[in-house]
Predict the structure.
Amino acid sequence: MKCPETGMLQAYIDGELGIKARKDIECHLRACAECADALAVLKETDDFVYEMLSVYGKEAAYQSHVHGTRVGGISAGSGNHADSPRKSGYGEIPEKTASAASGIRDVHPVVRQKTMKGVWNFMNRYRKLTTAACIVLVAAACIIIQPVRAAISDALRIFRVDKLEGVRITPQEIARIRESLSSGAGDLTLENLGRIRLTGGLSRTVTRDELIDSCGFDVFIPEYGQAPGPELTVTEPLTLEFALDVEKANRVLDSLNAPEKLPAEIDGKTFTVAFAAQARAEYVAGGKTFTLHETTSPEIAVPAGVDIDSLFNVVVKIPIFPAELKSRLKSVSDWKNVFYLPLFNDSQLDSEEIVLNGTNAYVTTGKDKNGGIHSILIWMKDGIIYGLSADTDKGELLDFAKGLE
Amino acid sequence: MTGTPDAPVNGNGMKTGMETDEAMAFNQAYEKYYPEIFRQAAYLTGCAQAAEDIAQEAFFRLYSSPPSHSNTEAWLRRVAGNLAYNFLRGEKRRRKMEPAVAEDDAEKVVSIEDRVLVNNDVRLVRKVLANLPPRDRMCLLLKFSGYRYDEIAEIVNIAKTSVGATLARAQAKFRKMYLKEV
């Protein structure tokens, strides 16, 4: 047969051809290198679009669910063509498959699921401002924390947190960070630096017993005065895997005037942050909703072949790294297993360190330009991280906190 | 969902225009297929509100003029597909009149409340889809949600023999546009 047209090759890929037509094409493809190449390109594009639309499809299914309508099943629609079955989905671990035509790294697309509220919501609300703080946190969390236990295999080193400490970031430092980010790196998010994959993190309403069962830790749900029992939700463990694109990351570092570059060896290597289950209890008091969050330390897994010390050195030298944090890190005394919480003091955010029942706690209040106000109180005790948040000021939040225990 | 649309009744309060058997068949079809049709419409239009309207309309049509052949599901999918395509083309027209709205418009269904780490890939897909001509967008979405060439041809109003070529071009366009965005 003559070389088939593009439309026919596509129909072949899509399993739309009858047996005879299919056999004819296969016979032709064996003999004609050009058509074989053309088919390969079409197939590659087909796979690409399939992957992208799958993610989109899952999102549509999720949004249908959120929209409140009964929906049967979450699977994205996928045609089952008898002749050429489509691929069934993602592998479990992101794999690097170089895309020949474009040269980008195709880590499998993110499976987006509903994620934790509370602390994350708060951070997101002040996203532009706290992006820098996030970088600090992630960098700090990944690098400062000492390994607590040996890895199961030599492939990973696992990091956990035992303590929470606050670190002041001055308005000047924030301004400098903002300026660096807006002039150089653009909208700096984890996504721009590489690929992210989220799994788990679904929330559901539960009873007290179910909550205790679902959480791997000792959940404590206090009563508040005469208020009726709180509404309880559990968020299942969320895993965040990210692989840095070292080239992109180094360009960002460049724009931040960092004196050193990230080592090439971490390119594409997957770091995993495994968050524990999160318990959430919503109380209503005085017409306001107070949310108590509880969770345990996330675990950060660093892949083999990554020199944590050299990574640390590069990150710490980035000029936007707040001075107080740098000096803390230098004084070796008690920086092991510590999670550094950013503390602010400017027109929008105000943080204070207090003592709550003998434990260090940190309360931050944020005001947005519409006059909205939101406060969050964080402390850690016996390995459990607590967060209390509400759309109110520090005073009311602390009053409520006292009324809890 | 609030259940089936009200059946027309005559003076005695008896259902008219439909025998009890048919009413039962309709209810069964509704129970069985509504979620899937809704989800299908949401996927095709990218808008939950439109999806609801479309699903309701499809079932209304099923109720008021049920098709003679027995494959209700295929019929519903076809109707939903047609309605979705109409919606998309209408959307394009509306968007032409409000040029400033662009990307946000395509995301109108998404309530950001629960979103924290927004999936960048999904955002890009939405953007690319929104910028494709409605026919290409529709062809892609139909194909990847399981519609066969003959169904696609009917909904999008092209010859069945052209579907392959249209898809190949649309896919290449999608990929090219997506990679430009990344």
In short: Residues 68-157, 332-336 of chain A have pLDDT under 50 and may be disordered. The CA atoms of residues 4 and 25 of chain A lie 7 Å apart. The two ends of chain A are 82 Å apart (CA to CA).
